[in-house]
Amino acid sequence: xxxALSFQHMSAILPKTDIKELTRDDLILxxxxxxxxxxxxxxxxxxxxxQQTDTFDVMTDIKKxxxxxxxxxxxxxxLEKARIETSQDGTKKYLFKLGDGKYIESVLIPExxxxxxxxxSQVGCAQGCRFCLTARAGFARNLTKGEIIAQVRDVAYDxxxxxxxxxxxxxxxxxxxxxxxNVVGAINTIIDSDVGLGFSSRRLTVxxxxxxxxxxxxxxxxxVNLAIxxxxxxxxxxxxxxxxxxxxxxxxxxKACANYPLMPRQRITFEYILIKGINDSEEDAKRLVRLLxxxxxxxxxxxxxxxxxxxxxxxEDSVILDFRDILTKNNYTAIIxxxxxxxxxxxxxxLSANPIPD
Length: 358
Ligand code: SAH
Description:
about 350 residues, ten-stranded mixed beta sheet
């Protein structure tokens, strides 16, 4: 068998690498190995992220020969939009089909003067939170860096009106800190204003179920906002609701939060779902006040969103208001967040990426 020939043949049939998987330094190295000047990397990436091009042949300031080599090795992938649903409140849920046939969802939420995009970090989720539909189907795999970036790049491209996409939250499917290096790699491109998508890191929030081992690294390596899904004030309750608590109990989680580096006016957001009879008592509110004392915190209260075959119920409105009042009386900013997009199962905890509509 002629191996040289068969390798050549293989490179023609192997899938090309999505260029979004590379950092600028990776690309510079690739170019250098082919005697191409490093400044070309900036030109190429500006086309990919600022001009949002889909092919290399439109990169007119780059020599044809280089463009051909690039398109031989790389692709500039978009995610396949399998379905887009629009809620009565304007929220849009994107179902994306990935290269290997798996599905994820991203949610575009219209606010008064801007859009917020909620993106996924994994296909499914391994954390098993009892109140979250994403947990039901279990975990399939981590998203690659390129797939995380693509959710932002593609939806930004898709928005055809003047309202601007400014805020990004990693609160979709998956646990971002369990896919740490791809998430941080994607963040670096999303916030790069020179050769990336140019979003402000002040308006990018990473939400975690409490994956303690990666918290301090996130604080050191990025300046994004941190949100913690706390959801309970006693280990017994949190163990039941969120199995991750058995490994990283409340005290350990809050100690890591107290040590988390914050900018002068920055605070950590604590998300607290209110579930009837489980975590919504007056004692819970008072315990929450005490627990958060050592931390610069604000609190988002999320009335529980229900889904099929779920035994939990949403707390009564009066209970939610009383809970909020205890927090505000103790000088916390506590906001009740009614999730949008409930009619299309796009609200917090309702993402299942099921290609067959209900
Ligand atoms: N794994 C990360 C990212 C997912 S964020 C994390 O846990 O933070 C999803 C957010 O939605 C979390 O704050 C979670 O507490 C909340 N959530 C999950 N299921 C919910 C439900 N059924 N109703 C309301 N909020 C829910």
